[in-house]
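REQUEST ID: PR-0412
SUBMITTED BY: lab tech R.K.
PRIORITY: routine
TASK: structure prediction, single protein chain
INPUT:
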Amino acid sequence: MPHPLGTQPSKIIAVHLNYPSRAKERGRIPAQPSYFLKPPSSLSGTGDPLVRPAGCELMGFEGEIALVIGRHAHRVTPEQGWSHVAWVTAANDAGVYDLRHADRGSNLRSKGADGFTPLGPRLLDATRLDPAALRLRTRVNGELVQDADTSTLLFPFGTLIADLSRLVTLEPGDVILTGTPAGASVVSPGDVVEVEVGDPDRELSTGRLRNTVTEAALDLADWGAMPRVDTALRADAWGPGHLPGPVLDPRLADALRSVATATLSSQLRKRGLQHMTIDGVRPTRPGDTLVGTAHTLRYLPLREDLFQKYGNGMNAQKRAVEELRPGQVLVMDARRDPTAGTIGDILALRAKMRGAAGIVTDGALRDSAAVAALDLPTYYAAEHPAVLGRRHVPWDTGVPVACGGALVQPGDILVGDADGVVVVPPDLAEQLAADSAEQELQERYIAEQVAAGEPIEGLYPLGPARQDAYRQWRETRS
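STATUS: complete
OUTPUT:
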């Protein structure tokens, strides 16, 4: 389907950073806006494919609000800027990170390829819109991954137009892509990206700009810069909480699941690791075991003036759930405050549907009976009916946290049973599992001897005089 502008603009200007949430992901807040150009030939419409060039792996999407200039703007003021906008529509500032190295910051080949700027499907009359009250939503394969409004932009739309018009005349039909919020990430062939822009009540909407990612049919000619990626670039492209980490090997997971947390704690202590238990939590399902890798969420103390900004919409709590990958454990740092809930039944169900291995919070659980009924191991400090806004502000995800007195890094392994939860460093997991299995086998032998009337001295722990007898007993069990 053709893009909705009708004619080609003289230029497409894209803003680097404009949403506070994206600036936070990138680790910098610009003092002034900065821009890059995309060629008009990159325009496409809803339904058109997003073609990933052959040899590339990091096809990125960025849901954005596009402004279409309606009349010449030259040296206008910020107060005048919005009056020069005729239309607003949805855009996807797509690109491939694999070619970002090629053009020294211009983004020409990485973001300027044919079809890399879909717009549409409908144009909204700017005179009917409040530029500070627009809402942007992006979905990938039906899942909401970006949800932001324009009330807290670093650079309001009028400011962008005024800033650009100091030196560049904006002409009718020119397009300004106004930045993307947090949640932009990588998509693969077969994925469907949908972007929608409208007012908060959805009375006015562009409809969903829908594009499917495909693989290029022809190889990329090799007489220019070729795709290049490394670990840092992958992390940058995927974004916080999205980069696929190493999946816990099923054999290792089974080995950890087969031993008690008490045994693991003992083995950790032998290695000088004294603070690896998540204290003060109990399971909703004492008969279940928990094994998975940590995905973290950090709450900070409530500040009423910040809750509107950080606690509403697609806040860090909801993002943390939507970022979960199969086999991960959602680990929440609530500062051991049990006086408000940190998760309830709906989000716990969503975590289960995303394949989570479990949930651990050192705060309170809402809807505790409903969460306990889920087939999802959950550890928590208390029950409480109040929502998180009573005591907590959901702040960020994918960062080291303190949960129940233990430091948990993203990717750490969590093991839980009826006794509680321990944190297992991934690089020690194989040896810990093996040594824990051996310790439990010894303890089984010791228990049999005690049950037969043997005294404890020299038996528990297993002394040198008992080693031969234990080895003979062990051989009969192998």
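NOTES: The chain has a mean pLDDT of 92.
REVIEWED BY: pending
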